[in-house]
Amino acid sequence: MSPRDLKAALRKERLALRDAMPAEVRIEASLAMADHAGDIIALDPGHVVSGFWPIRSEADVRTLMVRLRDRGARLCLPVILDSKDIVFRELLDGIAVVETGFGTTGPGPDAPEVDPDIMLVPLSAFDAVGHRIGYGAGYYDRAIERLRRKGHMPRLIGIAFDCQEVASVPAEPHDVALDAVLTESGFRHFRAG
Q1: What predicted TM-score, i.e. pTM, was given to this entire model?
Q2: I need a surface site. Which of 70, 114, 185, 187 has the fewest CB within 10 A?
Q3: Cα torsion at 79, 166, 65, 177 (round to 10°)?
């Protein structure tokens, strides 16, 4: 099986497990994530943190985002510009949050675009060394690559439930590894940073 086919199979399997979690279990797990990481994610006042509004059965990181904002972070959300790229728009009082494509929600075009210092990254599956499987469209891989070309190196924190961990993710050259992952069981660092 090719790495691409194996990733597709792992994605389908792990998303099915996530989808099978009762809503109340996902809510409790999401709140546990905020408790685990709300005070320990290293950030300086003014750091820009990219979160996301949950779609489908994703973890809800909005409580975590509020905790980080209360510690001085500026918040932003990814916005899909077209079928290939996302940008990050700052989440500010007075700027409408609107549907931004493919079921996502983010600040409208009046919000300034920013480069995140820390990215909370939704994913389908991850392994114990920080390799991840996204949703298959490559939005985050392209956005991270674009930021790195500009000399910006955001810390990448994967957001998942425990059931999304797999023994091994087949890593390909274009894949970007996580610095850490946050699940309902806790916060795990993979690399320094």
Answers
A1: 0.95
A2: 70
A3: -60
Residue 10 is assigned to a ligand binding site? yes
What pLDDT does residue 85 have? 85
Q: Is 17 annotated as a binding residue?
A: no
d(CA 68, CA 72): 7
CATH number at residue 149: 3.40.50.10420
The whole-angstrom separation of Cα 61 and Cα 54 is 7
Number of domain units in the chain:
1
Half-sphere exposure of 31 (CA within 13 A, CB side): 5
Residue 91 is labelled as binding a ligand: no
Is 7 labelled a binding residue? yes
Contact 142, 84 (CB under 8 A): yes
140 among the known binding-site residues? Answer: yes
pLDDT tens profile 1-11:
898 899 999 99
8 assigned ligand-binding residue = yes
Percent of the residues in the chain that have a pLDDT greater than 90, as a whole number: 77
Range of the domain at 122: 3-189
Higher-pLDDT residue of 83 and 25 is: 25
Residue 193 has pLDDT above 70, yes or no: no
User: Annotated binding residue at 71?
Assistant: no
